[in-house]
Amino acid sequence: MLCVRDLHAAYGNIHVLRGVSFEIVGGQIATILGRNGSGRSTTCKAVMGLLPPLHGQVQLDGVNLAGRESHDIAHAGLGYVPEERLIFTTLTVEENLVLGQKPAKPGAARWTMDELYDLFPRLRERRNIRAGFLSGGEQQMLTMFRTLLGNPCAILIDEPTEGLAPKIVDVVGETILEMKRRGLAVILMEQKLSMAMKVTDTVLVMGHGQIVFTGTPQAFEADPGIRRQWLEVA
Amino acid sequence: MPPQEQSPRSSARVTVVRILPIALVLGALIGLPRFADMAFLNAMVMVCIAALYAMGYNLLWGQAGLISFGHATYFAFGASCTIMTMAAIEGGSSFPTPLLPLAGGAASFLMGLVAGWFATIRTGVYFAMITVAITELVRAIVQRWDSMFGGEAGITSIRMAWGPIGFQKLLDVYYFTLAWTIIGILLLWFLQRSPLGTVIRGIREQEERVRFLGYDTHALKTLVFAISAGVSGMAGGLLAFTNESTNVALYEGAYSTTVLINTVIGGAGVFLGPVVGATLTTLFGYYVANLTYYWLLYMGLLFMVIVVYAPRGISGLGVDAVRRLRSGAPVRWDLLGRFALGWLVVTIGAIMTIELIGAVVQPSYGALARSSGVAWPPVRVFWVSWSPASPLTLGGIALLFGLGAVLLRDTAGTASRNVSTLADAIAGKPGPGV
User: What is the domain extent for residue A9?
Assistant: First the structure.
């Protein structure tokens, strides 16, 4: 279980996260929605230790990770798929995947390279090609697979479908559901509702650096005020 | 066709194409003593040492993207510890002589662990500055600690026999150095191919990404620094073994610069690039130094030309050429011919200029002018006597440079692009690398 409590973080003098709190158990998908600048990506960075939090707790299966180095946090079983598809462009596809490999923690889902290649066979065909030559969709899948090979217990995925063709969006959705089937706690950061609403169990809405709504997709759909106030651009 | 579906025959051909040149070079190196004289064999011993040193250095630059300006420390420390071990063997220690380079390598590895831990806290220019600071610190200590490092006089010892091997003949030293150089290069090759090698290249490209994948990048960079220092120390050990002596001059900055120059000239981005650079510059030093007093100046110019026009070094040029040929792109013979002629003309002009000025500024030239009564006595360059002040000579040189500028007119863009890429690389900015 991933439990974030009262997380505060700042870029210099700009206080971006003002007490973010949420919880997610294994085998569930939570989607954090919000406008640009609402603090979704900053939440990922603060949880992963890439931006040291000012205050608050990040607990994974009861262990507090807040304030630790990001490699320690990754080792503890938290995976991160960044928005910018940060692949290693000069390494081959397979070398990128090898970089992600880590031994699985007891109880964590195990992933093998072959299973992942089966989910998206194009990467298998291109495994000896430099990753910089891949298309945007292939790079997105590579980034997700690289993180999964670390056998995480929980995974943060930032804007996985941004700028992708509908076919690839379907593959991304399938892969996220497979993560859920295998018992991972998945936290999805999305701006678009279409794919997220199909897969998610919980909807969280962010505004002004806080979680302002938590509920099921049905409850979210039933409350147009939330969407108008926190998601639509005036 | 995806690479994994290659037919066995074509993959066998690829293996042959890759292995054959290496096998030929190895065969030539093993058979070399049958044909070479003592001077050349001696030069080749120095080539091996310089090659191993540059390979160790390039683990840090070419693989991890960290440019050190103070690697002489680890080379020299390896030499010092090896000579101390040799002295111990002389004094009755049972340490086996053939393993002497390991003593130097292990000592430098340990020193690299400590120095690397500090240096790799930072990257880019700051990393480079810390390496320089550590070098100066070690040099200051070593130069004052005569009882340990022998001061200006240095430490001398002798190569003790081990079993049937006497280690007294140059032939023994040559094969010993060659064997250890190959062992060192193989070690680096397997390291590069290992998962650790992949992580190191990942750190070069984007350290933060490697961190959130769960790697302690500071620890890994420290380890890479130490391995690089260890291999450099092995090379230093081979130098101590060959010379049967060391002195504190080895700790000076010049030895840090030499390895950097060798790596740049050979090419940091190609695995065996530093070997090419070390071979070229060491042999250049051996043979061109006999021809001209200004050989170091020529080496400096070569370095500058390579940095500006071919930042991937000579081996990088070779790899690019092979790739181009394989891709089936048409060879622009007209362009190649024009550039070759342009560089030839500029080189001749540069040699004429340097040798004429070099001769004229020497005190002996003034004395000759006074004694002969001729204001500008002739100077011999390229087996011809030239009058340094005659319009024919000066006009000829100007003509060569002018012709060179015309022939090489469209290379200025490449030069400025490459210089900015190199500046980015030194500053530690991610990019296509050099």
Answer: 2-230
Q: Which stretches of chain B drop beneath a pLDDT of 70?
A: 1-14, 412-413, 415, 422, 425-434
Q: Which residue has the higher pLDDT, B388 or A157?
A: A157
Of A49, A71, A89, which is closest to B215 when you measure between CB atoms?
Answer: A71
Contact A128 B217 (CB under 8 A): no
Q: Delimit the domains of chain B by residue range.
A: 21-270, 330-426
Task: Test B201 with A88 for CB contact under 8 angstroms.
Answer: yes
Domain of residue A30, CATH code: 3.40.50.300
Within 8 A of B215 by CB-CB distance, chain A residues are 71, 74
Q: What's the confidence (pLDDT) of residue B426?
A: 63
Least CB–CB distance from A95: residue in B198, B217, B432: B198
Q: Do B2 and A89 touch (CB under 8 A)?
A: no
Taking an 8 Å cut-off on Cβ atoms, the answer to whether B211 and A95 are in contact is no
pLDDT of residue B1: 36
Among the partner residues B208, B213, B432, nearest to A99 by beta-carbon distance: B213
B5 contact A CB<8A: no
Count of domains observed in chain A: 1
Provide, as residue numbers in chain B, all residues whose Cβ is less than 8 Å from the Cβ of A99. 198-199, 202, 210, 213
In SS3 terms, chain B reads as: CCHHHCCHHHHHHHHHHHHHHHHHHHHHHHHHHHHCCHHHHHHHHHHHHHHHHHHHHHHHHHHCCCCCCCCHHHHHHHHHHHHHHHHHHHCCCCCCHHHHHHHHHHHHHHHHHHHHHHHCCCCHHHHHHHHHHHHHHHHHHHHHCHHHHCHHHCEECCCCCECCECCCCHHHHHHHHHHHHHHHHHHHHHHHHCHHHHHHHHHHHCHHHHHHCCCCHHHHHHHHHHHHHHHHHHHHHHHHHHHCEECHHHHCHHHHHHHHHHHHHHCCCCCCHHHHHHHHHHHHHHHHHHHCCCHHHHHHHHHHHHHHHCCCHHHHHHHHHHHHHHCCCCCCHHHHHHHHHHHHHHHHHHHHHHHHHHHHCCHHHHHHHHHHCCCCCCEEECCEEECCCCHHHHHHHHHHHHHHHHHCHHHHHHHHHHHHHHHHHHCCCCCCCC
* B21-270 CATH fold: ABC transporter involved in vitamin B12 uptake, BtuC (1.10.3470)
How far is the alpha carbon of A196 from chain B, nearest alpha carbon, in Å?
25
